[in-house]
């Protein structure tokens, strides 16, 4: 944890402290930037020291050692050339609040599960999915547009889960590339969809730990172009007159099934 005396320096004030208490993506200024761009005269005029990067105490580094889910880039060169000062596509958009709830959230060990909700467009459904993903310990949730988190209907259903649930923006047109990237990282691509080859979700179905679950559009389901990328589709057995579930309900069923095996 941070120390008010030891961390009273430029590195600590410019993000170093937040890196110690939050597992969110922080736009911090590292020691090398101050060392590189401050002149010797400017350094001599500083009222407080520059400080050092204490990477061994960064919470995000510890979390990434347990759950490796890389930020989504449109190309690999961008990933290689990125730095702490850059705002990356897919970066978590808010800083974890520094309070008791924030510290509790930072200590949660999430699963590697990725729930791709980019095809879902109704704010209340996305709010509910965000909430259940947080409750069930999913690693990441993708949205087509992160600004939906400011929607009042989203917030009313999410009930603050959007403050703690790791989310990244993956546009609909980026889904295929995103899934292919995750497949290279060892993920099994699973669709929640009724097809002639769908596997029934039951106690015999074992989810790989590194699973990516693609949710379909409300009513229309998963478009064919994305079905072709999947390793398998899962169907939830239904016996009632109405043979369809609300997307929130269906997501809760499949994510709970995964979590019961890996959380």
UniProtKB/TrEMBL annotation:
A GO term for molecular function: RNA binding
Domain of life according to the entry: Eukaryota
GO BP: any one term: tRNA methylation
InterPro entries noted in UniProt: Alpha/beta_knot_MTases, SpoU_MeTrfase, TRM3/TARBP1, Trm3/TARBP1_C, tRNA_m1G_MTases_N
Keyword field: Methyltransferase, Transferase
Pfam families linked to this entry: SpoU_methylase (PF00588)
Keyword Transferase: yes
tRNA/rRNA methyltransferase SpoU type domain segment(s): 113-255
Protein name as annotated: Unnamed protein product
Gene source species: Candida boidinii
Lineage: Eukaryota, Fungi, Dikarya, Ascomycota, Saccharomycotina
